[in-house]
Amino acid sequence: MNELVYLLLGSNLGDREAVLRQAVDALVSKGFSIKKNSAIYETQPWGITDQPVFLNIVLAGKWSSSPDELLVLCQQTEIQLGRVRTVKWGERILDIDILYFGSTMVSTENLMIPHPGIPGRRFTLIPLNEIASKKEHPVLKKSTAELLELCEDDIGVKIYSEF
Length: 163
What we know:
Blueprint: E1 3-11, H1 16-29, E2 33-37, E3 40-43, E4 54-63, H2 67-80, E5 95-101, E6 106-107, E7 112-113, H3 122-132, H4 144-150, E8 157-161
Antiparallel strand pairs: 1-4, 1-5, 2-4, 3-4, 3-8, 6-7
């Protein structure tokens, strides 16, 4: 397949930046080839707001296998770095979301591509816009820049550091 894939990584527990860097290393070691990455952004929590602030980064890369196999890799990486799933949208050491998988669309019980949260989340759109402002959402037929302009989410998102 070797499609251009976009991933969103986030952490709000422990040494957040170190966790993101370890996650990137783990993904690369298992065959995810990074072509571009955003800066690391500090973002206010979304969903459940009474928790520590997040660090987020978006990666664009190549993956030569299926979306399902990428999902497995993402979940294995989360677990490897200490993720325990308890509360939806709760605090976590690591979260990895598949945003886009080329132009492929997937809708199963375990995986939705494009990620359904893209249009409504500034913490996703701002780093994605940094590296893929012209990327068109295959369902909404709008670019990342257009989606960001239309996004009504008002949580704080600011650059934390370069990656």
